Amino acid sequence: MTSIRLSPRPPYDFTKMVRRLQGVKHELYRMEDYALVRTVRLAKASSPLLVRIDSIGTIEKPELKVDVAGGGKLGEAEKLELERLLGRMLSAEVELNPFYEHMEALGDEWSAICARFRGLHLLLEADLFECMCKTVIGQQLNLAFASELNRRLMGAAAQPLEHKGVIYPVFPSPEEVASLEYEQLQTLQFSRRKAEYVIDWARAIVSGTVDLQALFAMDNEEIMERLTRLRGIGRWSVECFLLFGMGRTDLLPAADIGLRNALKKLYGRSEQPKEEEVRRIGASWTPWSSYASLYLWESLHDSERA
């Protein structure tokens, strides 16, 4: 078994990240003795890996220990690729103190939120393909049913990974999803359009129409312009992709209902602000709009879980 150590930038509160993950009921993560466990894919690996992520440090001196199983022994190149994947997925290189300084200057409401969720980082999807699939599936659906459709897609297109007698779900590759027919997803209660959007997204990657790795060199607007050319992918979908897939720190999904509800609660309003007003309010959050949005979402959901 391969082990990897990561030293995220403090403050880094792994417990808060796990708590948020439990609240949104992510389909791929499992909790095992306070560790996060899930499958991931490397670009050139023939089979998925199972990673177990344990916090062995503190909020101010964070350290993560990652044990890796499956896929055979990793070479140095594969180990480096996995370290980069994990570092991005766990937002290990994001320095939050400038975010707190920026937001606390906006008023007492923000000072309270920053103190309450200090150390909470974005936990990204492990794979850009997976992120957009889930985003498209989740369009105009409640969280529970979207999560169920994600499970059904995994069951239809990917073989799970077995380790020590435990079965772990695996998100399918673009090739696996591209090989499906629309009708196969329709039998799983996907709408016809949603089935088309998910499979066409996979086929765009397999055909080379979309180069996922090339996106990392592009700015947000260029990615927005390229991806919204694809049927079924609009501005909200790309904003979520940039935020939860790529970890861009200055995304403001102003149309999001949860974000609007959180702002209503924060400022004690009787009604949600409209999308245009969210953009006006959020203009002062730049360059930290993604983390401001994350903390607002968590202020809403954390109260529901309490």
Give me some keywords for this one.
two-stranded antiparallel ribbon; 15 helices; alkylbase DNA N-glycosylase activity; TATA-Binding Protein; HhH-GPD_domain; alpha+beta; DNA damage; DNA repair; Alkylbase_DNA_Glycosylase/TA
Unreliably modeled segments: none
Strand adjacency order, main sheet: 1-5-4-3-2
Largest sheet report: 5 strands, antiparallel
Order of helices and strands: EHEEEEHHHHHEEHHHHHHHHH
Instruction: Assign the CATH superfamily of the domain at 128-245.
Output: Hypothetical protein, domain 2
CATH domain class of the domain at 128-245:
Mainly Alpha
Strand content: 5-15%
What proportion of the residues is helical, as a percent range? 40-55%
Instruction: Label the structural class.
Output: alpha+beta
- Please state the CA-atom Rg, rounded to the nearest Å: 19 Å
Give the count of helical stretches: 15
> What is the global morphology?
globular
Distance between the termini: 38 Å
Domain HhH-GPD: 137-306
GO molecular function, one term: alkylbase DNA N-glycosylase activity
Keywords: DNA damage, DNA repair, Glycosidase, Hydrolase
Protein name: DNA-3-methyladenine glycosylase II
